[in-house]
Amino acid sequence: MHFLKLISTFFKVNVQMSLAYRADTVVNILLNLMWLGWELLGLNIIFSNTTSLGGWGIGELIALLGVFRLINTLMIALIWPNTQRFNESIRDGSLDYTLLQPAPSMFLVTFSRITVWRIWDLVLAVILIVVGINTAGDVATLPSILTFLLLTISGAVVIYSLWIVLIALTFWFTKFDNNVTILQALLDAGRYPVTVYPVWLRIIVTYIIPIAIATTIPLQALRGELPVERILLFVAVSIVSAWIASLVWKAGVKRYSGASS
Amino acid sequence: MSPDTILVDQLSKTYQVPEREGGFGAAVRSFFKRKYKDVKAVERVSFRIEPGEVVGFLGPNGAGKTTTLKMLSGLLHPTGGRASVLGFTPWERKPEYLRAMTLVMGQRNRLSWDIPAADSFLLNQAIYRIPDDEYKKTYKELNELLELEPLMKKPVRNLSLGERMKCEIAAGLLHRPKVLFLDEPTIGLDITGQARIREFLREYNRLTGATILLTSHYMADVTALCERVIIIDHGQLKYDGGLTDLSRKIAPFKLIGVMLADAATHDLSRYGTEVQNEEDTGKRYIQVRAEDVTRATSEMLSTLPIHDITIADPSIESVIEQAFNQ
């Protein structure tokens, strides 16, 4: 409850911050709509030549695009701005103030910046998912929709944990500004179903750097393709990754208190 | 339980800093194999501070002041020794401790630049879980002392340095901390700005009984606020005691100022060390040990063509400077 209140306060403050840069906000909303049109156009081109991609029909691909945009919103609304803020705060020393606040530092670092106009991206993402599921027709059943939601959340948790580990590395390397570029590049691979990629790449993006967990896998659940043990495995992976991320973060903060001056 | 608010016992902090010589070859070598050098920032420092005291924490740049404050506020783990503040071990960073103290660093920003301070205040209220009525009361008090109201609505980046510092300090005090660690709270401010912050701190201490440990490069801050000073240099404690005793212990000197009829031709070094020469007034100052003052003045009066003579205590600035140089 306290954390929800904190997030809503952060959100309010960030709304005010982005209103301070009016032109920026307007341009960003327009750009965003343009990108969406561009992506849908891309899908349209693919499907005017074929009816399936990696065994997936257009409805499922629209839903995948929705999931991808959902994760992408997480990236752009939270991960990018907070990484920038975090890197700055290490350089200018204001991280000291963050660490002295009576709230978990990982939480404060996650939510202190929110690119608020991106929130409406979430709405688009949900619309895409709903339209996609509808177009896919009888593929989706209630249990498959529920597992889809569950796995989407675990996917987001995995991406988030990866991010925490990446930025926590800054505590050791001091300068590591490209930390999130890597994550974004990998995430872009999740735009299409991993089944279109060669096997070696598929293995990498599913198990080694588990981007597919956040995109393709939930969609496979929606199609009812995932056996229960795989579903449990992916949920377990997300819990373990969150746990590891918090350990790495704690070690990083400890290292910071040991080494900084 | 001791009545001390702050208890520091043999506190030490040694940093390992990478070390390399200049030049390309050395840079490449150090990329593969780093050499480290131990730097003792704080060495076995001990002191106690009682509730409600305002203590000046002094020392030249790099003496270990900031490192000590960071250990006491919980940001740094020491490499040796103990410290307890309000019964807490600072570096455990327990939320109860963090809510009971504040660290204000004059050279760092707590407030977001793009939004008015009022919004950052609300954020702090949420993070520190300050109930609305308590927040309003504290804000009202701080506003009375610092005249914050006209500053609250402007984005922080549009405030002057002095205005911003007022907001920074207020932001650090919204949760009514019992212990204040202030690192150069007046740095960069003009004389009136410094005086205002100083006045505020004195009032705040009187009203709330908060314990304050402050560092400053402006001796006026120290003389106006602190009855007691702690001096460290090269990480070691040099002096801990009353400000008035400081000059007696460290620099038992008096300053004799003379204006001579025919300036600059006379050698004053046989009476004491010449420390200052005011060219425009023609007044020259020599430093003489306190017990020699009578003898020196009577000798000077009988041998030199003196227009005017004054005897004064050295300024606290010069005393402290002397303490650093010992």
Describe the structure.
- The complex is a heterodimer of chains A (261) and B (326).
- Chain A has 261 residues and is mostly helical.
- Chain A has one domain (2-259).
- Chain A has twelve helices and no strands.
- In chain A, α3 (58-92) packs antiparallel against α9 (179-188).
- Chain A is globular and about 55 Å long.
- In chain A, 36% of the residues are buried.
- Chain B is an alpha/beta fold and 326 residues long.
- Chain B has two domains: 6-247, 3-Layer(aba) Sandwich (Rossmann fold), CATH 3.40.50; 251-325, 2-Layer Sandwich (Alpha-Beta Plaits).
- In chain B, 35% of the residues lie in helices and 29% in strands.
- In chain B, the strands form three sheets. Chain B has a six-stranded mixed beta sheet, with helices on both faces. A four-stranded antiparallel beta sheet of chain B has the order 11-12-10-13, covered by helices on one side.
- In chain B, α9 crosses α11 (316-325).
- Chain B is globular, with a radius of gyration of 24 Å.
- In chain B, 38% of the residues are buried.
- The model of chain B has no long low-confidence stretch (mean pLDDT 87).
- The interface between A and B is medium-sized, with 28 and 35 residues.
